[in-house]
Amino acid sequence: MDPVPFARVLGIDAILKGQNGVIRRDQALAAGLTRARVDDLVRRAQWVRLFPRVFLTTAGPVGARARVRACWLWAGDNSAIAGSAAAWWLGLEPQPPATITVIVPPPWRRDPQPGVRLVRGRIDPRDVDFEDWIRGTRRAGWPLLAWALARLVGVDRVVPEGTLQPGEPVPESGGMWPQVR
Hints:
By secondary structure, the chain is of the alpha+beta class. It folds into 2 domains: 3-56, no CATH class; 64-152, no CATH class. The protein has helices at 3-10, 12-18, 25-30, 35-43, 64-75, 83-89, 142-152; strands at residues 22-24, 48-51, 54-56, 80-82, 100-104, 116-120, 128-131, 134-137. The strands form 3 sheets. It has a 3-stranded antiparallel β-sheet with strand order 1-3-2. 36% of the residues are buried.
């Protein structure tokens, strides 16, 4: 899903409603705002920058859904939210993550951002899906990806695939391996 054509077709109000008040600059332009208008909204602090080119358009604290969505919009259309952030987005984790893991395809480059763990890599298209307008690892595939990410950083505790139910916390698994199909 490329967010820009949706902005063109749906318009700014529908995009802001569907994206928790978060919008990427190119979406705002596609929805009909001028560059000068976007710059003015940012300059007058009516829009707050969450990530480069991504803004929160509502007053008040940044909610967890807005933060995860903004991270995905910043990382790019071919990126995917992964790990505990994807699990939380899908309702498999009860608490939002302190750090959002996002996978960006090579050779994309993104500057480090607070609260974001960037992983450069490729994901099989069968392991990602769109859920509520963001691309993330799929319900059935995220434990395998979590295991792979954990192995990259030297952690060998993972949850076997298919053992979690929506809303159930991720248990300590004592180094169990995911089921591989």
